[in-house]
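Anyone able to model this chain together with glycine?
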Amino acid sequence: MRLELVVRKEERKTVIHLGESLLPEMKRHLLAKHHKNPIVLLVDANVLRLHGRLLRMHLQEFRPLIVSVPSGEHSKTREMKARVEDTLLQNGIGKDSVIIAIGGGVTGDLAGFVASTFSRGVPFINVPTTLLAMVDASIGGKTGVNTSKGKNLIGTFFPSEAVFIDTHFLKTLSEPEFKAGLVEVLKIALARDARFFRFLQKNAKSILRREPKALLEVIHRSVALKKAIVEADPEERGPRQVLNVGHTMGHALEASSQFRISHGEAVVRGMLFETLLAQKAGCLSPKERKEILATFTRFGFPVNARIPPLKKLALFLAADKKSKQGKPRFVLLKGIGKTVSTKGQHAFEVRPALIRACVEELHD
Ligand code: GLY
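re: yes, here you go
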């Protein structure tokens, strides 16, 4: 399967390949476009341990420089970016190189950020190995790192030249990582496609069993939805914000825990909170929220998860990138498959009393 994502700015185009065992296809791409360029593989340490032999077997003729990136959100820092850049410089890597990320969202965001500034920009290829990175992080050119003040606060928009979504990597993905991807799948369906949401409800068992046909369909539909959103708004000036449903609170929870809770866990709690907020704001009916929670339960997500008190979250909510004058803004579900939008605005300030009431209802 092949999709093309056209990012209008500078007419850059990302070709998205989807299928099982795509390394030979990536090799053909490199031979056709980059056979004379030094190749750098930035690989998540776990992926290198599990798939290093396979990667070397397919890519050895390029004699790539392989740089291992420690797994986990703690690698998404300015310090790690500098460390990677120093390694490239020490190895004589220059303007003619190509950087390939092989890993989850952390590796892809970090590698994309390095690629966007190294020698003022070198071609970037993304090979997402987690479900989350396949359906979300690798699509749409966002790169960046976290700081102690919050998630993704430093970064660039830098479309990759190609994305190779190879479902082979899902075979070794841990259950929590797989579930973290499913949260983003549910999120995009909730924000944009009620029929897809119902498909997910109906096929929860085969998806959880990772049946190849179901997975391909889930990834294809998620990527197609995200592609349409990114094409309409590559740099998140408006409509792309809908992808942040559940994430204003999700990112605040993640950052306030110093990234001890995973992105997936944080977004599940963020969704619980933001669906309650949408209900209390009168956008989502109690029946619809019940259906959403029942679907989360069907996928094995805890719908009774708790969140910390507001005083622990307030600064992180204020630091969210959608905030204006330090006031957090939320994407509000308007039923299933739609979000509230008025006059080109997709994220909204909500009365502090409403935020407080929802936190109080959900906190331990
Ligand atoms: N992950 C949200 C976005 O790419 O816009």
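The CA atoms of residues 88 and 94 lie 8 Å apart.
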